Amino acid sequence: MVPISPAWRDYYTELEPERRAQILQRNLREEAEDGANAYRQRLFSLRYMEEGKKEPSADRWLWACVNFIQVYSSSRFFRRGGKKEVSQFLKESGYLEAASYGEAGEAALYWEIRNTAKRYFKTCMGSEYRRSLFGLLSPNGADQKKQMCKDVWRMTLGLEKRFELSDELKLWTKAVHDEYVLTDPRASEQLQEMSRSMERG
Amino acid sequence: MENIKQNPVVKKLGFNRIILFCILLLMYGVFSVIIPGFASMDRIMSILNYTYFLGFLALGVTFVIATGGIDFSIGPVMFCCALMAGYTLNTHGAPVVVSLIMSIVIGFCFGCFNGYLVAFVGVPPFIVSMATMNIAKGLGSVFTKTQSVSWPQGNDPSGKGWFRNLVKVGDFPVGLLIFAVAVVILYIVMNNTKAGRYILCLGSNKEAVRLSGVNVRKWQMLAYVICGALVGIAAIFFVGAYTTVQPGLGDTYNNEAIASCVMGGTSMAGGLASIGGTVIGVLVISLLQEGIMALRMTKEVQMIITGIIVIVFVYADVSARRRRN
User: Do the Cβ atoms of A118 and A16 come closer than 8 Å?
Assistant: First the structure.
């Protein structure tokens, strides 16, 4: 995908919204305009900002990660509602506006999704993630990684397949997968195995 | 096998649910063959009587398990609701409606108590529900002065037995209709409302949900509150079918309700719940209880068999997850 300058790399590797806001403001002042600065600002605002609040708070894109997993697993009787939820996120998050900012816009969107995925994977490393036996047992590292792989499949390929959204979610899937393979040397292989296993049902 | 799983109808209904339903039919067939008169209307009504209250317990605990928690107090709380409401009805002459509402309110309060301790204070659900189990048993005993409580019969001269119409009118199982409506409502709540989605997401990844700006505590507490209210309703159906409630009991129903959930496909790790599966699980357990009773086995043997079933299904859930991983 499109490479980014070190200054923007800082912005896309930082996970804390407050710190990201500072880097964004600094980069907007100091970095050369590549045609996507307005879009970056818009993505930031749509992702974190709430009406009446000056500081970034809720991470709506992170919610999309968690929610997409559930949307994939949701009841077959409410399939249409699931597809609507995904489409609504794509519309309200600024995802569909990337094309109007050209290549730089698509790159900005790609890196924003990677940042979201990175934040999601960080939450998967905590002891609260997927405790088994009614919350009594902490999962071990291997279990966490396997569960994480399943989550990745569900929020990307699973969702694409179930709701026939391959075109719409192409960039989302690519960005999440690209970030996921950095979490573990065997991640790519595990994801392929997971795809085969999930497709078998 | 893979061809069967890929069948659109099987996919729509869920492979595991179909297997469980086949087990249910098989069990009914076997019991009908080996026990004379098992297929009679009386037996079916008896199975349904067990299904109503166990169903409400299991549906309630499904919401809690979906968050990744557990509630081991549901059985004793159900007894506590029935004891306190029944005692108020008999001793203080409260109207039946007031007693029925009281039962739901007591269950609701226990749900709030459990939910508050788990979500706001941060006490592990296992510990909270074990403690609440003892509190409920103690409270029921203290309130009734360790006396068992008998709810009025249907033909009670005072006319207070009308609440039994909630279970059946003549040979018509009214309870089945009420239970079916409740199942549909809870299915929609779990699968098509914001509350249900938050509850499931909490079980899936609580930290990510918190960072998304969702009030994690509120929704986690809600799961326990829903469970508590449903336990209160379960108490009404219990007394509607069985009349007498003894203090200090009720814990055996925890296992049965939790087993129903787990065998129905609700994950013990949270994040995955099946209301339809829980209902089939409840029917399996109810049928099994009736079958064991019809075979003239003692209550102790029933407990052993139920315990074994819990172990088998919990093991099946754990090993299935290992295999999938």
Answer: no
pLDDT value of residue A152: 94
Residues B243-256 pLDDT 10s: 889 998 888 899 88
Range of the domain at B149: 41-314
For residue A129, the model assigns a pLDDT of 82
pLDDT digits (tens, 9 = 90+) for A116-135: 999 999 998 877 787 777 77
Q: B189-231 pLDDT, tens per residue?
A: 999 999 999 999 999 899 999 999 999 999 999 999 999 999 9
Kindly state the tokens that stand for B139.
């409270």
Number of domains in chain B: 1
SS3 content of chain B, % helix, strand, coil (to 5): 75, 0, 20
Average of per-residue pLDDT values in chain B? 88
Is A80 near chain B, with CB under 8 Å?
A: no
Task: State the pLDDT at residue A128.
Answer: 74
* pTM, to two decimals: 0.90
With respect to residue B302, please indicate whether it lies within any of the assigned structural domains: yes
A22 interfacial to chain B (CB closer than 8 Å): no
| Torsion angle, alpha carbons of A78, A84, A87, A88, to 10 | -120
Q: What is the mean pLDDT of residues B98-102?
A: 95
The reply to whether B316 touches chain A by the CB within 8 Å rule is: no
Interchain CB distance below 8 Å, B204 and A70: yes
Q: Which residue in chain A has the smallest CA separation from B15? A: A201
Residue of B125, B200, B207 lying closest to A70 (CB–CB): B200
B184 within domain boundaries: yes
Closest residue in B to A119 (Cα–Cα)? B208
User: Which residues of chain B are within 8 Å of residue A133 when distances are taken between CB atoms?
Assistant: 268-269, 314, 318
Residue B35 lies in a domain: no
- Packing angle of the helix pair A37-48, A102-123 (nearest 10 deg): 30
Residues A101 and A2 sit within 8 Å (Cβ to Cβ): no
User: For residue B6, is it within any domain?
Assistant: no
> From B317, which residue of chain A is nearest by alpha-carbon distance?
A133
Output b/e per residue, B266-300; b: 16+ Cβ within 10 A. bbbbbbbbbbbbbbbbbbbbbbbbbbbbbeeeeee
Which of A50, A134, A147 is the mutation pick for testing B, counting most B CBs within 10 A?
A: A134
What is the CATH number for B266?
A: 1.10.3470
